[in-house]
C-alpha cells in the first residue's frame, strides 16, 4: 500500500485563526487593566472550546462586567484580525501537489462546521477538500481519535495509509490514537506546548514533501521501491 490520503487540521494549520482568537481576548483583558499570557490560553487550542475567559476576567477584576458589551467588542476585534488571515505558507502548494498525485484530502477539525466551511470557502480551498469532518459530526473532539477515524472512513482509506497534518498537542494525540502518522507544524502559540508525540516536525508546510510524508508510513504501507 502507498500513501493515499492527507488529513489536515484547520485552525492554526491551514489558517492561523488561533492567533486572532487569543489576541482579541488578550486585548480585552488589557483593556480592563489585566493580562492574559499565552501560556494560560494554549491548553484550549486544538480541542473543543472550554475556556471561560469571561469568568476569568471577572475573577481577576473582582467584579462583574457587561458581558454582552465585552463579547461584542471582542468579536469585532477578532473579526478585524481574521480579515487579514489567508492560508498559511505552503498550504496551497501542498494541497495542489497532493491533488496532482491523486491523494485524497480531508479536513478534520474540533471547531464547528459553521466556522470551518465558511473559512475554507473564503480562502478559496473548499473545493480541494471533498471531506470535512468537524466536531458536529462526532461524539468526541480531539484529543480523542474520533475525527480522524471518521475522516478516514469517509475517504475510504485505512488510517495507516494516511498522514495527518496538525499544529497542536491535542491534534497530534488524536491522530496518533487513530493510527495515522502525524506531522506537526507549530505556530506561535502551539510552539509553547509539548508536541513530541508527532512523528515529524516542520517549520512550515513549505517544507512538506510527499515522498518524505510517505516515508513516515508503517513499512507495510509504503510503496515498493
Terminal Cα span: 12 Å
- Please state roughly what percent of the residues sit in beta strands, choosing from under 5%, 5-15%, 15-25%, 25-35%, 35-45% or over 45%: 5-15%
Structural class: alpha/beta
CATH homology superfamily of the largest domain = HAD superfamily/HAD-like
CATH class of the largest domain: Alpha Beta
The CATH architecture term of the largest domain is: 3-Layer(aba) Sandwich
**What does the average pLDDT come to?**
93
Helix coverage percent: 25-40%
Domains, number? 2
Query: How many strands?
Result: 6
Largest sheet descriptor = 6 strands, parallel
Number of helices: 8
CATH topology of the largest domain: Rossmann fold
- The topology string of helices and strands comes to EHHHHEHEHEHEEH
Spans where pLDDT lies below 50 across 5 or more residues: 220-225
C-alpha Rg, in Å? 18 Å
Principal-axes shape call: elongated
- Spatially, the strands of the biggest sheet line up as 3-2-1-4-5-6
Describe the structure using short key phrases.
225 residues; alpha/beta; Rossmann fold; 2 domains; 6-stranded parallel β-sheet; 38% helix; disordered C terminus
Short description:
By secondary structure, this protein is an alpha/beta fold. It has helices at residues 18-31, 53-61, 67-82, 91-100, 113-123, 146-155, 169-178, 210-214, and strands at residues 5-8, 104-108, 131-133, 162-166, 181-184, 200-201.
